[in-house]
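>> received
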Amino acid sequence: MKEIYNYEDGFGGELSAIINHANIQLTTSDTVEGDSVTMQLSLSETRQLIKALESATQHAKDD
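>> returned
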């Protein structure tokens, strides 16, 4: 089973995450300039990324 998450910032930036049982594929695109970057992370790398994001945003307020 896979899950897909898509986000658009309203200024031409897009993020797509495809998550399955083995890894996560992140694709970010700039629809204005036409640039795109894709990377694949293992589940352990994804866990490390989540921990880093949680640590960096633990005192942030929702906007």
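>> The mean pLDDT is 92.
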